[in-house]
Amino acid sequence: MTIKPMMAWLIAGLCAGQALAAVNVRGVQFPDTEEVAQQHLTINGAGVRVKVVFDIYAASLYLPSKQSTAQGVLQTPGAKSVQAVLLRNLTADEFVDALVNGYRANNPEAEQQRYKVQLEQLETMMLGMKQAPKGSRVRIDLVPGIGTRIYLNGQRMGADIAGEGFYQSLLRIWLGPKPVDEELKSALLGQP
């Protein structure tokens, strides 16, 4: 094998290795890419939700193209995905309370009223879990033209929640002006 073909082979091998790479957050592996509604998404960032001194969950954000600002994420058209893996045992009530409190802190009253029914659907769906043990994987996808689709441990939960605007308001839990965790917000935005 001559030098040039060998270099091409090595470069191809390195590129293939990068495609299979994953982001590791506190022992949780998030793949570099995902697919939602037949749209290829790339990990934008990943980090940990910490409350006081406790690691609550590892989370990742997938987008069609990298974005470094909350506004950029919210204005990006197409599919999106937020994924969370619990790092401690929670009850469904604890998990839902945290989501709802984050939602209310980051969305104006008019927005909350506009998506009241959708938020209630989400609460009901999540409360159906009863328990959210350590290692549980929650995936919240935006399916363009449909709305929010939720998975628990790879299994689809309930019916889709209609409307793309509701998904945008959910993203503000992590990316809004009062995010549940400032360091997690920075991590999801791929900021150092």
From TrEMBL:
Protein keywords: Signal
InterPro entries hit by this protein: Chalcone_isomerase, Chalcone_isomerase_3-sand, Chalcone_isomerase_sf
Gene3D superfamilies listed in its UniProt record: 3.50.70.10
Entry's transmembrane regions: none
Entry GO MF terms: intramolecular lyase activity
A Pfam family reported for this protein in Swiss-Prot or TrEMBL: Chalcone_3
Signal peptide: 1-21
Domain spans labelled Chalcone isomerase: 22-190
Keyword field contains Transmembrane: no
PANTHER family reported in the protein's UniProt record: FATTY-ACID-BINDING PROTEIN 3, CHLOROPLASTIC (PTHR47698)
Protein's name in the database: Chalcone isomerase domain-containing protein
Upper classification of the organism: Bacteria, Pseudomonadati, Pseudomonadota, Betaproteobacteria, Burkholderiales
